[in-house]
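To fix ideas, we close by showing one paired sequence and structure record:
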Amino acid sequence: MALKVALVSPEREVWAGEAEMVVAQTIEGEIGIRTGHAPVLGVLVDGSLVRIHPAAGDVIVAAVGSGFFSVADNEVSVLAEQAELGTEIDLAQAREALELAQSGGDGDNPQAVAERRARARLRAAGAES
């Protein structure tokens, strides 16, 4: 039996299908979900990655903004404010966004959030940030 997974943002359904495992970074730490996992609800770390290991095919990596991660009855829902598959990311544009965001800041100020998200986009696309 596989997990039923949906990764969605306000704009669209980013990915949906069956998977063997889903890994996400929550504010409590990284969590990996397999079939039969107990119900859980978590808050996604803004500017982190979600990795989906589909039942068939390559691992899917997505950069996500803040949002929620829920598991119940072998269904995983990733509801992100912003989500983008690594395969959809334009590396040049992502690098430019990182350079613009690196004008300083720390914590949760807008510059730091922009930098975390830019770094996540680069990691999702398979580039070093």
Summary: The two ends are 36 Å apart (CA to CA). The first helix runs from residue 91 to 101. The beta strands are 3-8, 13-26, 29-34, 40-44, 48-54, 60-64, 67-72, 75-80, 83-85. The chain has two helices and nine strands.
